[in-house]
Design goal:
Layout: H1 6-25, H2 34-50, E1 74-76, E2 86-87, H3 90-104, H4 106-124, H5 131-160, E3 169-175, E4 178-185, E5 188-194, E6 200-202, H6 205-208, E7 229-237, H7 240-252, H8 261-269, H9 274-278, E8 283-293, H10 300-310, E9 319-321, H11 324-337, E10 345-352, H12 355-361, E11 371-375, E12 380-392, E13 398-409, E14 412-418, H13 422-428, E15 435-441, E16 445-451, E17 476-480, E18 486-491, H14 497-508, H15 520-528, H16 535-538, H17 545-549, H18 556-569, H19 574-580, H20 588-598, H21 601-606, H22 609-614, E19 616-617, E20 620-621, H23 626-637, H24 639-650, E21 673-677, H25 685-694, E22 698-700, E23 709-712, H26 718-726, E24 729-731, H27 733-739
Parallel strand pairs: 2-11, 21-22, 21-23, 23-24
Antiparallel strand pairs: 1-6, 3-9, 3-10, 4-5, 4-7, 7-8, 10-11, 12-13, 12-15, 13-14, 15-16, 17-18, 19-20
């Protein structure tokens, strides 16, 4: 083709390259070779360099920015990026479908309204004994019986159809990557943000622009123009082949490889240099929408079809199903195919296809009610236990770690697994030389599930716990349960180097002091260099900037960001400091209770052990038992503890309660006390405690007569028994969730 001017050729090349991007990433049907593609891209770069006035921000050549970033700004989402509820079995999946069906069925809704009206009439005549009132009660009883029978028939009929609903269920692979929100305005990509905490995320636009499967400009048509605003949500991920390539390069360079593709993806997106991101071939698939203006979609299927037209890739494996039986068949079929995929998948997401039905069901504060994720069971493998090492934690707890013959499980080669504690070794009767079955819990942390006793060699001796600390050689004390069985061992040396390293890592982490730029690797690097030997040393690093710059891979910007993060951490408040110090038995809930009651470290230091154990908040017991009280009192009055407090005070770290902000959420739990126990699936304990306190309630650590609610997970144990004995209302996670205010979306 002959061009009359450079602009004509540039526009032609851009159009061709965008078309090839679409055919490669959306249609999965490339029509040219990689070499031919690169030749077109190189020609476009040449022309734009010769004619800089013709360069535009949405050109395919402008994916990689120039200067490295100094950091990532935080951006509020136009619509919250909620999590997805999940399940591991078909029964719970069916219950979810039943809830959706019954909430949408007009006949069942009418029955519920009539039953509510009967209840209201009977409430209005409560205590009355006249003939008219008795007649109303009799009529209500007959009506209720008729309505309940009709409801049972409707429910049975719905179950027979597999809760088939108009519009159906869309089932699509759950990609194990990093959630992202892409914002297009008038067809141009203007912002890309991570999920973050669901309300706010990091602006990673410069890095996301380097991902070739994400169009910088939507391919609008006359019949389907680009909306004024379109937020596309999806997953950024690293294909298996790229993950292996990067890890091989890391090993060759003597560096620690990534644990799994998800970690590699997250680490790549947090790179400050977009050029480094471009070198790792991340990919993207869309699965949902955020804010939309200037376009309307009746179904998710219609939305995905529109994305395909605009050149935005989505999973080609998504399938519309009529009933929950169809969904289950799809889940089983996909399970047999997922090992053939080029990327990591850990389940199937099932969602209602019709948007009006989604609007009707709404969301909880955490999950949409109109979708659920079925998670595949953790993958297991068989291997041999070779040895057990003991690692020292921040509280001195000795945790056993298994070393095994290497085995491939859930996409990675595994050689180590956690054994949790000595009690777990005894309970499972684990011995060195055993054949063991391991799994990756959540496909991240390997753990030993059980021993194959039939393959145990004769005369294998039991594993003996250490009598001395494996790191410092200090004295070790054991901990026992109520039955007198040993459950754990602790190093009692407060100056143990291993404890110090773990305490420093814990102190700096998110949820404690949240020191930006001070992750585990940096803490260990600083400790190895002799720059960190105590908590106070963290806040003295500003005077050692020159020494920081001598460290490997510590440039000026990285050092300045670290020092800025340390300065910001000084005002986190007393509760975060108490939680961060790694005092035995002191987690975030207890730290908040202590900080709220005493207000300052001086007041807490002045309290006796008995006062700490018995104080009340809002007229109720604090829930702090004798072990917790003894632990905090011992720390504050020990020589080591007093030295830590003095160091922090000298560094001007805030050791008082931060000023409270006005509540901006409904105070529906005001005056109510909650306790959480057992193994939870949807939330962590801290998340439930935070939700309770945000809504005006109080989180406690022990059950008493003044406890209003116990949120109980699996294996709830003694707290559940005591709650039932005292008549405390027991809630499942789902029941607790139903108490929270509903946010429609």
């Amino acid at each position: 083709m002959t061009f009359t001017n450079p602009q004509q050729e540039i526009e032609q090349l851009r159009e061709e390259i965008r078309g090839h991007d679409r055919r490669y990433y959306v249609d999965a049907a490339p029509t040219i070779t990689d070499q031919e593609y690169d030749q077109k891209l190189d020609r476009l770069k040449q022309l734009e360099a010769e004619h800089p006035g013709l360069l535009t921000a949405d050109s395919p050549t402008q994916r990689v920015g120039g200067e490295p970033l100094e950091g990532f700004r935080t951006v509020a989402h136009a619509r919250p990026m909620l999590s997805i509820d999940n399940t591991y079995d078909v029964e719970n999946l069916s219950k979810w479908a039943q809830r959706c069906y019954e909430a949408l069925d007009p006949q069942l809704a009418e029955i519920e309204a009539e039953l509510a009206a009967i209840d209201q009439r009977e409430e209005s005549i409560k205590g009355k004994r006249d003939k008219a009132s008795q007649a109303i009660r009799k009529q209500g009883k007959e009506q209720r019986k008729t309505l309940e029978e009709k409801k049972l028939r409707l429910r049975a009929a719905a179950a027979e159809t597999g809760y088939a609903i108009d519009g159906g269920y869309l089932a699509e692979p759950k990609i194990d990557g990093v959630a992202i929100n892409l914002r297009y305005e008038n067809g141009l990509l203007v912002l890309a943000t991570t999920r973050g905490d669901g309300a706010r995320g990091d602006d990673v636009t410069q890095n996301v622009r380097t991902i070739r499967s994400i169009p910088l400009r939507l391919a609008a048509t006359e019949t389907l123009p680009a909306p004024e605003v379109l937020e596309v949500r999806g997953e950024i991920f690293m294909p298996h082949a790229e993950f292996r390539r990067i890890n091989d390069a890391f090993r060759d360079a003597g560096e620690e490889p990534f644990a799994n593709p998800r970690n590699a993806t997250a680490g790549t997106l947090k790179q400050l240099d977009p050029t480094a991101v471009a070198e790792r071939r991340l990919q993207f698939l869309a699965h949902g929408q955020g804010e939309v203006a200037g376009a309307q979609f009746e179904t998710h299927t219609q939305f995905l079809d529109s994305l395909a037209t605009w050149g935005v890739p989505a999973s080609p494996l998504a399938k519309l199903c009529k009933s929950i039986q169809d969904v289950w068949e799809r889940i089983e079929k996909f399970d047999s195919q997922r090992d053939q995929l080029s990327y990591e998948v850990d389940g199937v997401v099932i969602k209602l296809d019709r948007y009006d039905q989604r609007e009707q069901l709404g969301t909880t504060s955490r999950f949409p009610r109109w979708c659920i994720a079925y998670k595949y069971p953790a993958e297991q493998a068989v291997t041999k236990l070779l040895q057990v090492d003991w690692q020292v934690g921040k509280t001195g707890k000795l945790t056993p770690r298994a070393t095994m013959e290497p085995v491939f499980v859930a996409g990675t080669t595994v050689q180590h697994a956690t054994l949790h504690n000595y009690g777990e070794i005894l309970r499972k009767d684990i011995r060195i030389g055993d054949t063991v079955i391991i799994e990756k819990a959540g496909e991240i942390i390997p753990q030993v599930v059980r021993v194959d006793l039939e393959k145990r060699p004769a005369n294998l001796p039991p594993i003996e716990p250490p009598e001395k600390c494996p790191d410092c050689g200090g004295e070790v004390e054991s901990e026992h349960d109520d039955a007198g069985k040993e459950t754990a061992r602790y190093c009692m040396n407060p100056e143990c180097p291993a404890q110090l390293r773990e305490r420093l890592i814990h102190f700096a982490a998110r949820g404690q002091m949240d020191i930006d730029g001070m992750g585990e690797k940096i803490v260990l690097q600083l400790a190895d260099a002799g720059l960190l030997n105590s908590f106070g040393d963290i806040f003295e690093l500003h005077s050692k900037r020159a020494q920081l710059l001598e460290l490997d891979r510590m440039g000026e910007k990285k050092a300045d960001n670290l020092l800025a993060g340390i300065e910001a951490a000084k005002t986190r408040g007393l509760d975060r400091v108490l939680c961060g110090l790694g005092i035995r038995h002191i987690g975030s809930t207890v730290a908040r209770i202590l900080a709220k009651h005493y207000g300052s470290i001086e007041s807490l230091q002045a309290a006796t052990r008995e006062e700490i154990q018995t104080f009340q908040t809002d007229g109720q017991e604090s829930g702090i038992g004798p072990e917790i009280a003894a632990s905090i009192h011992h720390f504050l009055h020990s020589e080591a503890g007093q030295h830590v407090i003095e160091e922090l005070q000298s560094a001007n770290v805030t050791l008082a309660v931060s000023q409270p902000t006005e509540p901006n959420t409904p105070q529906i739990f005001a005056g109510k006390t909650f306790v959480v126990t057992g193994k939870l699936e949807k939330y962590t304990r801290d998340e439930i405690h935070t939700l309770v306190e945000q809504h005006g309630g109080k989180a406690s650590s022990s059950v008493s007569k003044k406890t209003d609610y116990l949120v109980a997970g699996e294996k709830a144990g003694s707290k559940l028994a005591k709650a039932e004995q005292l008549g405390v209302t027991v809630l499942s996670e789902t029941a607790f969730e139903e108490l929270l205010p509903t946010e429609n979306s």
